[in-house]
Amino acid sequence: MSEIKPQRLEEKPVYTCRIFEVYEGKIQLPDGRTATQSWINHRPCIAAVPVSPEGKLLLIRQYRAAVEQMLLEIPAGALDKGPETLEECVQRELAEEIGFQARRLVKLFEGYLVPGYCNEYMYYYLATDLFAAFLPPDLDEVIEVVPISFQEALAMMKDGRIADSKTALGITLAWEYLKGSSDAPPFSG
Fold this sequence. Notes:
Blueprint: E1 7-16, E2 20-28, E3 34-42, E4 45-50, E5 57-64, E6 69-73, E7 76-78, H1 86-97, E8 100-112, E9 121-132, E10 144-148, H2 150-159, H3 165-179
Parallel strand pairs: 4-9
Antiparallel strand pairs: 1-2, 2-3, 4-7, 5-6, 5-10, 8-9
Helix pairs in contact: 2-3
């Protein structure tokens, strides 16, 4: 393959909303050809795996219009409330979605969710030592908090009752971290 640096030659916005923008444009590929592609620019996001003092995961059930289903998920959201740090975003999302915040946050992972067409970048956190802290949810959210054990969550991932990949990754990362941590809250393995 040649030493041509891939680059965007032109781009035009197709659609813009509160959290993302859709673009189409010409791209120079690494082999020198050009192609028309579409992509989504998305704000950075966080995902939190909250674990109660009793060792239960606090998942949320909410309706997702794109898949027309109620999904079981970990709390997550975009950095969209002005200038806030990642940790401030985690605490805000926890308060909005489960009514708690965390005295202890551990960054577990960060990476792109679907780089084939979107630059959405997500930061995963484990949230422990929870305390009550309520913020009203976003206007388009109706959320039910669902406490479950790690064993239940792992079984639900296997049989498809947890079908959200960010949730499956977050639970797996938290499970692996907590199994090897001496200061982890008690949880049923």
